[in-house]
Structures are given as structure tokens and as C-alpha cells.
Design goal:
By secondary structure, the protein is mainly alpha-helical. It has 6 helices and no strands. It comes from Papiliotrema laurentii (Cryptococcus laurentii).
């Protein structure tokens, strides 16, 4: 009597085992399908930009303002330091430097120091702007770097050919430096279209 009972128990286990396996596979199948659909939708979705265009143009305007403001103190610092240094050097007017009087050489060197400060101003201002906005300037790639690349790609596709410019029809804002908002971007597009019409067909601008 014991063996038939054990045989019946084994048979019942054999009957229930496929059912348990079927339930297990049925429970995991939807999750696998959901994960595959999620991965497919993620791979096919377009890459979104890290910033909106109005926000980026506002930040771009602030960064340019920082660069412009820092140009003033760096230029004055170059002039002051260069002038103070070369003014302190004792020179003999009879001792020429490359055939030029030392006074003129030192004056030119002072102007060179002032020009160096003028060139360092935008770089210093942009660097300080990046330090004060770490969330936008850090990363690989950084959000501002991504937006700068996208912006200049759009500008390069839509700007006019500068080889057709003339005295009466100069190329308008070739690098898009005056674009600080969506309205100025639309105005830039209109200026490029007017420039192309005048350059290609000699059609006068509608505002003239």
C-alpha cells in the first residue's frame, strides 16, 4: 500500500510541475516584453537637447556680457603694468634698439601689453562664467558645449556666402554674435535672406 501511495504522489508532482513552470514563464514573459519594448523605445527616441533655445540664448548673452565686462579691467591692467614697467627702465637716447630710439620701443611694448590684456579679457570672463555655472559647464559633453555645437551648426547652414559680399552688400553678422533671443534669431534669418537675394539676383532689400 505504501508503494502505490508514493507512486500517486510522484504522479501528482509530475502533473503539477509543468503547470508551475508554465505559470513561472507566463509571469516573466510580460516583464521581458516590457523591457524589450522599453529598450526599443529608448533606442529609437531622438536625442533631446539639454536646454531650451530661449534658456540657452539667455545664457549665451550673459556669457558674452561677462566676456565684454572683463575686457575693460584686463586692458587697463595691461596698460598700467606695461607702462609702469617700461617707464621704470632707465634708457640712453644714444643707445638705439634695432635702429629705433628706446622711448618709441617702450611705448610700442606698452601698447602691446594693453593689447594682450584686451585679448585675455574675453577668455577670463568666459572661464569665470563657467566656474559660476558648474552644472552647465561640466560633463562629457557639457550642456553648454552641446548647445554651442548645435547653434553653430544651424548658423553655418543658414548664413550667406561671404564671398559674394560687396561694399553695398556686406555679409550680415557672419558668426551670429548678435543673436541673443528668438526674435533676434528670426531677424538674423531675414537679414541673411535679404543678403542672398541681393548677392545672387541683385534684388534690392524690401526695406529700402
Amino acid at each position: 500500500m505504501v508503494r502505490p501511495a508514493l507512486a500517486s504522489v510522484g504522479a501528482s508532482r509530475a502533473l503539477f510541475r509543468p503547470t508551475i513552470l508554465a505559470v513561472r514563464y507566463a509571469s516573466t514573459a510580460p516583464s521581458d516584453a516590457a523591457s524589450s519594448s522599453t529598450s526599443t523605445s529608448t533606442s529609437t527616441s531622438p536625442t533631446a537637447l539639454p536646454l531650451t533655445w530661449p534658456a540657452y540664448l539667455s545664457l549665451r548673452r550673459q556669457r558674452r556680457l561677462w566676456s565684454t565686462l572683463f575686457t575693460v579691467p584686463t586692458t587697463l591692467a595691461g596698460l598700467t603694468l606695461g607702462g609702469g614697467y617700461f617707464a621704470s627702465i632707465e634708457s640712453d637716447p644714444t643707445q638705439l634698439i634695432m635702429g629705433v630710439e628706446p622711448m618709441f620701443v617702450y611705448a610700442g611694448a606698452t601698447v602691446g601689453c594693453m593689447a594682450l590684456g584686451y585679448l585675455l579679457g574675453p577668455t577670463l570672463g568666459s572661464s569665470l562664467f563657467s566656474l559660476t555655472h558648474p552644472s552647465l559647464s561640466r560633463g562629457n559633453p557639457a550642456p553648454l558645449e552641446v548647445m554651442d555645437r548645435e547653434f553653430f551648426q544651424r548658423i553655418s547652414k543658414r548664413r550667406g556666402d561671404p564671398s559674394f559680399q560687396s561694399v553695398n552688400n556686406p555679409a550680415p553678422d557672419f558668426y551670429g554674435e548678435k543673436i541673443v533671443s528668438l526674435s533676434t534669431y528670426r531677424r538674423w534669418l531675414r537679414d541673411q535672406a535679404a543678403y542672398n537675394r541681393k548677392a545672387m539676383h541683385g534684388v534690392p532689400d524690401g526695406s529700402e
